[in-house]
Amino acid sequence: MTLKLGVIGTGAIGQEHIRRCNNVLQGAKVVAVSDINTDGARAALQRLNIDAQVYQDGHEVINSPEVDAVLVTSWDPTHEEFTLAAIAAGKPVFCEKPLALSAEGCRRIVDAEIKHGKRLVQVGFMRPYDAGYRALKKVITDGEIGEPLMLHCAHRNQSVGENYTTDMAITNTLIHELDVLRWLTEDDYKSVQVVFPRTTSKSHAKLKDPQIVLFETQKGIRIDVEIFVNCAYGYDIQCEVVGEEGIAKLPEPSAIQTRKNARLGNALLTDWKDRFIDAYDVELQAFINDVKAGELTGPSAWDGFAASVAADACLKAQNSGGIEPVDMPSRPDFYAR
Ligand code: NAD
Ligand code: NAI
Ligand code: ISE
């Protein structure tokens, strides 16, 4: 059986996901799309040479009898509404991160899913599917570096647009670390502080960039994450784990080394699409397979909620300048691992 997908939002990642579902992955095809920019949606389908129904509204996609499962790839503030609507329609939904803009919004999704009685939501946290992060986690769980004591991380984007504001460094960018570092350390955050170094001249009035986010976890691990979204030089994700017996570092993406003009060089990537291209393939194939098997196993609405609980504390810390607690409720049995 081919799983028929509806995609809400045909922007950068929407187009990437449509392409991979139809041309790369097995067992699914996109049959319906919507975007507030309907012409843009039509143009995207034409460019991708894909024949799918274009609807005016995301709710029409969700409720179309032709659609078995939904991908939400529209802007962050729309995720909660469409995910709740998919749950109400009883359809599995893959929602890009963040699941909602606040923990309160994620909680509404968690409550709706529990009321439905079966998992329907997978959040687009793709890093646990990345081969590098998986290898890093294995080194830790195999005990090769002893107990983790400190993590030094960086999340750098080449540049962002004028609509990207100081809070989005947390809700749109750091949200990946908020998820993957929980998964990597099998720990929860206890408190957080945000400090602002001198702002780059490449930023604008509504964005303080870079930012440094400092966490303490329940086990006492100290984590620093630099978020620098106008770093200019490339797309760069770093994660170094300092343990009792050694250090483990996320591998660099493979790149050809050149020797030219008396210089030794390794090209760097510039775009998240390329950096995590394989991880996106694996996460969506897992979603398709799990929907067909009748049981979702990837990043859950609870994982989306957990990341947003930490994000809320980070937003508070951005404004207070102080150390803010992260109060994570205990995991309901419904989401038992
Ligand atoms: P984008 O601006 O290129 O695309 C968003 C699209 O959504 C636009 O075409 C817009 O017209 C459409 N849209 C907005 N509101 C809508 C609505 N109510 N109904 C239908 N369409 C609507 O942005 P993007 O870079 O593609 O990001 C989209 C989402 O994907 C964001 O939530 C972002 O956080 C997420 N994202 C995730 C990753 C990742 O690494 N997992 C990478 C990029 C983006
Ligand atoms: P696992 O299969 O035991 O799952 C780990 C548990 O942690 C799951 O119950 C899940 O709810 C939770 N979890 C998943 N992603 C999380 C996240 N991002 N943050 C916090 N919690 C998270 O452990 P395993 O095998 O190490 O898998 C880890 C993740 O990678 C899972 O999401 C898994 O589905 C996914 N994965 C699956 C592949 C597949 O082929 N099915 C391949 C690669 C990754
Ligand atoms: C974008 O939405 C993503 O999810 C990328 O992975 C991240 O690096 C970027 O900062 C976000 O804007």
From TrEMBL:
Domain Gfo/Idh/MocA-like oxidoreductase N-terminal, first and last residues per copy: 4-125
InterPro entries (alphabetical): Gfo-Idh-MocA_inositol_DH, Gfo/Idh/MocA-like_OxRdtase_C, Gfo/Idh/MocA-like_OxRdtase_N, MI/DCI_dehydrogenase, NAD(P)-bd_dom_sf
GO terms (BP aspect): inositol catabolic process
GO molecular function, one term: inositol 2-dehydrogenase (NAD+) activity
E.C. designation(s): 1.1.1.18
Keyword NAD: yes
Reaction equations catalysed: myo-inositol + NAD(+) = scyllo-inosose + NADH + H(+)
Annotated keywords: NAD, Oxidoreductase
UniProt entry tagged with the keyword Secreted: no
Location of the Gfo/Idh/MocA-like oxidoreductase C-terminal domain: 137-326
Source organism superkingdom: Bacteria
Function recorded in the entry: Involved in the oxidation of myo-inositol (MI) to 2-keto-myo-inositol (2KMI or 2-inosose).
Subunit structure: Homotetramer.
Family: Belongs to the Gfo/Idh/MocA family.
Matches recorded under PANTHER family: INOSITOL 2-DEHYDROGENASE (PTHR43593:SF1), PTHR43593
Protein name: Inositol 2-dehydrogenase
